[in-house]
Amino acid sequence: MPDNPFLIAGGGIGGLTTALALARIGQPSIIIEQRTRIDEIGAGIQLSPNASRILIEMGFGPALAKTAAEPHRLVIRSGKSGKMIGGMPLGQAMRSRFGAPYLTIHRADLQTILLDAVRGSDTIRLAFGRNVAEIENNGPSSVRIRCDSQSASESVTGAALIGADGLWSNVARLIGDTSKPEFRRHIAWRGLVARKDWPADLPVDQTNLWLGPGAHLVHYPIRRGEFINLVAVTSDRDNEPGWSRTGDPSILQKRFSRWHTDAFRAIQSVGDWTIWSLFDRAPRQTWFDNRVALLGDAAHPVLPFLAQGAALAIEDAHVLSTEIKNKNGNLIEAFTNYTRIRKSRSSKIQSTARRNGDIYHMPWPLSIGRDLTMARINFSDHTSWIYDWQYP
Ligand SMILES: Cc1cc2nc3c(=O)[nH]c(=O)nc-3n(C[C@H](O)[C@H](O)[C@H](O)COP(=O)(O)OP(=O)(O)OC[C@H]3O[C@@H](n4cnc5c(N)ncnc54)[C@H](O)[C@@H]3O)c2cc1C
User: Fold this and answer.
1) Is residue 328 part of a domain?
2) CATH number assigned to the domain comprising residue 294
3) 30 lines ligand 1 (CB under 6 A)
4) Which residues of the chain have a pLDDT value below 70?
5) Domain residues for 314?
6) In a domain, 223, yes or no
7) Which of 137, 145, 325, 365 shows the smallest number of beta carbons within 10 Å?
8) How many structural domains is the chain composed of?
9) Residue nearest ligand 1's atom 33 by CA
10) What one-character-per-residue DSSP string does 68-130 give?
């Protein structure tokens, strides 16, 4: 491993993509991940064109094509009546308009693609089971960190530290931002159904969004249609910070029992649910300090109601590595530009996602106005500012 690598705290989608983007501009890195192995929960993720474009440009097109699904349209329906409220074409329409596909993929498959590439790289090292616990960030050309593992502590020096350590970022805290994420009174239930257990008359090759009072449901295919991924979100005061836990199916079934039979049967088909309390935070004031910068959820956690959290982390990795290359290694200038470019976009996506939560869960009779408005919206135009993003 060459001297002065970039240190990356966190081996999530943001950290892995950052290491790979840095490798492409000839910069070595060490990924420091607190978990002893990376195993994603059984759930899906939507990869919109703004993110798939970057991954394809990085050479992952064939691997994505092997494992992802590509729903041909989004259908928005009333959770109570089942009536179609709105929607937009995906599939070829997305490729034609944005030059990249709208994919849906199992998180484990995406992670395997990224991890295989990381493991195959000569310039990336993975250090598992280590927690970034302390930072010395006064140097003119390097940063020193202390990593703790179960058995020992060690010091590591690098050119810079990228905090890709997620919602509860310790790196952000260590550079002085002690603000806490805020619970947004939504709980996400995530589950997977094998195609053979999915009601035969329910659609597989499209993304369905069902809206009802105090809840919504999304389902889409993953692994080329072998599984259907479901996310049911309920407005809730219950809150167990951050961590996933097992959900009792009967609670969710009760909550959705008066929904349209198609939505209810979709919920009923899931055996195991995992629950997440949903948090985001006000945009951070500080994105970098000297030789430490934040990226992904560590910088800007987003509620999942626009399916953009991981997409933003992928965009961040692309912009950061491009700026490091453009500034010939002058990291302060690179971090300054990175922050300027990323702050307004991520803040807009954060606030739009939060607003979507309120819109999706509107009670009757407000939902009547919402449905009439949605029926008139051209969603392809309405969302193009998200999907046509490119840099430079
Ligand atoms: C229900 C739900 C559905 C979603 N759906 C979508 C979607 O369809 N599309 C989309 O784009 N996004 C989606 N998201 C958002 C997306 O999952 C996240 O935004 C994304 O995973 C963030 O990636 P990250 O790498 O920034 O952080 P994380 O994935 O949180 O990774 C952070 C890593 O850092 C490690 N770590 C933490 N602290 C330390 C430390 N001190 N030292 C070392 N390691 C540390 C953690 O173990 C973890 O591995 C969804 C989120 C939810 C909750």
Assistant:
1) yes
2) 3.50.50.60
3) no
4) 1-2, 239-243
5) 6-180+281-387
6) no
7) 365
8) 1
9) 10
10) -B--SEEEEEETTT--EEEEEE-HHHHHHHHSS--EEEEHHHHHHHHHHHHHT-TTEEEEES-
